[in-house]
């Protein structure tokens, strides 16, 4: 695991199925972490370097407020791990409602846009920053019956790649991880008959995210990195 002593991370979705693994990985490596989620408490992680940021995080104003709270405590933000997202599927494209389509765009694209916009100016000013977002295999390998979800994740990939291009001269990297089905409690509950051994271990995604956030990955930017596990 990389050493992150003195580094300050903002992690969205910090107590979700993947978020717990990512947040714990950075805390174990010595980082100071502001963890944002709809409902989260300091006691979710028994570490004095963790600050819970509980509340709505879907609008530009809410994202800006979260970033400001992290900077108010620690002075800056070195890395953004954007893990917030959502899933909806089961209908053909022509059967998908406007409500579902807008929900996928809000959860998987707009939230990322708001948080990236909230942290990039500070990263540009300090000349260093790391942005990692969680996409999905369906962003590049679409499957039937998940059109709105796949489209929102594909747009996320394009957004992150654009951010990488716009900030490559300021010591900032931006990458998106594309996992297959992750072995989380929520996914196990939703698909109890699946072969869990083929799913992606969240701890491996956390290890990759930590490497992408490190000094050693300074030349890795604009990447859409597959983590498909045995479902390849």
Short précis:
This protein is of the alpha/beta class and 232 residues long. 40% of the residues lie in helices and 16% in strands.
Describe this structure in words.
With 232 residues, the chain is an alpha/beta fold. The chain has one domain (8-231): Rossmann fold, CATH 3.40.50. Helices cover 40% and strands 16% of the residues. It has six helices and seven strands. A seven-stranded parallel sheet has the order 3-2-1-4-5-6-7, with helices on both faces. Strand 5, helix 4 (147-167) and strand 6 (172-179) form a beta-alpha-beta unit. Helix 2 (60-74) runs parallel beside helix 3. The longest helix has 29 residues, at 98-126.
Low-confidence stretches: none
Q: What is the end-to-end distance? A: 26 Å
Output the structural class: alpha/beta
Report the C-alpha radius of gyration, rounded.
17 Å
> How would you write the strand order of the largest sheet?
3-2-1-4-5-6-7
CATH fold naming: Rossmann fold
Number of extended strands: 7
- Averaging pLDDT over every residue, what do you get? 96
Looking at the overall shape, the CATH architecture is 3-Layer(aba) Sandwich
Classify the helix fraction into a percent range.
25-40%
Q: Which outline best applies?
A: globular
Strand content: 15-25%
Relevant CATH superfamily: NAD(P)-binding Rossmann-like Domain
Sketch the major β-sheet: 7 strands, parallel
Order of helices and strands: EHEEHEHEHEHHE
Number of helices: 6
CATH C-level label: Alpha Beta
Number of domains: 1
């Amino acid at each position: 695991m990389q050493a992150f002593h003195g580094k300050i991370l903002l992690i969205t979705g910090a107590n979700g199925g993947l978020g717990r693994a990512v947040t714990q990985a950075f805390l174990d490596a010595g980082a100071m972490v502001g963890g944002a989620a709809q409902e989260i408490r300091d006691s979710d992680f028994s570490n004095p370097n963790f600050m819970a940021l509980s509340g709505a995080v879907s609008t530009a104003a809410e994202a800006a407020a979260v970033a400001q709270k992290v900077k108010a405590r620690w002075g800056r933000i070195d890395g953004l791990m954007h893990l917030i997202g959502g899933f909806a599927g089961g209908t053909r494209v022509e059967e998908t409602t406007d409500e579902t389509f807008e929900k996928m765009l809000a959860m998987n694209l707009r939230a990322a846009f708001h948080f990236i916009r909230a942290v990039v100016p500070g990263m540009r000013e300090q000349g260093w920053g790391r942005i990692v977002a969680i996409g999905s295999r369906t962003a590049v390998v679409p499957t039937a019956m998940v059109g709105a979800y796949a489209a929102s994740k594909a747009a996320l990939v394009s957004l992150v790649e654009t951010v990488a291009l716009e900030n490559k001269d300021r010591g900032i990297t931006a990458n998106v991880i594309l996992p297959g089905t992750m072995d989380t409690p929520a996914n196990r509950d939703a698909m109890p008959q699946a072969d869990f051994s083929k799913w992606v271990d969240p701890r491996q995604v956390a290890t990759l995210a930590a490497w992408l956030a490190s000094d050693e990955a300074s030349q890795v930017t604009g990447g859409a990195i597959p983590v498909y596990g045995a479902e390849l």
